[in-house]
Amino acid sequence: MSGPQVRVRSPKDLRHQRRRRSHSCWDHLLIAPLWPMHNVNLGTLLRTCDAVGACLAVPKLPWVPDALARGNTLKRRTCVHWTGHDPVRWLIDQKARGETTVVGVELADESIRLADLPAARGRTIAVLGHERTGIPAEALDQLDLVVEIPMIGTGASLNVAVAGSLVLYRLSGLL
């Protein structure tokens, strides 16, 4: 008895199935690791942004531009928003633009499970906290929705790149 025939798609097949050119920043879906800790996580998120048609919003800390340049494995222009040095002020300004939903990825009593997170229907910013301390208390007031990623293992949370990628795929409607 043999299993189903599996045909692996070639890179050429994939190119024909996907959009003909990379997206331009349409400012609809942003992932915001506003308190970044590790430069490799930013590179991973940048790659995920390209995959789902999202943009990355990061503070312009001295090491961040270099981390993004090294993390841009696609070697083409990417969609990056610079938040300045005060992430909470940036969030306040983004919400003041109107019609923006701010989703925090955090363990909280009010959290919904990732599986219950609907795809973004309007401008949405997904906020990621610090790898050790999460989203600071002063930024929690800016969140419209809090989502958590359920875990079975012994760790308390995933790293920023993995958590952000899962949330981006869910918000983009691709997962």
Automatic annotation (TrEMBL):
Keywords: Methyltransferase, Transferase. Pfam families: SpoU_methylase. Residues 38-169 form the tRNA/rRNA methyltransferase SpoU type domain. One of its GO terms (biological process) is methylation. InterPro entries: Alpha/beta_knot_MTases, rRNA_Methyltransferase, SpoU_MeTrfase, tRNA_m1G_MTases_N. GO terms for molecular function: RNA binding; RNA methyltransferase activity. This is SpoU rRNA methylase family protein.
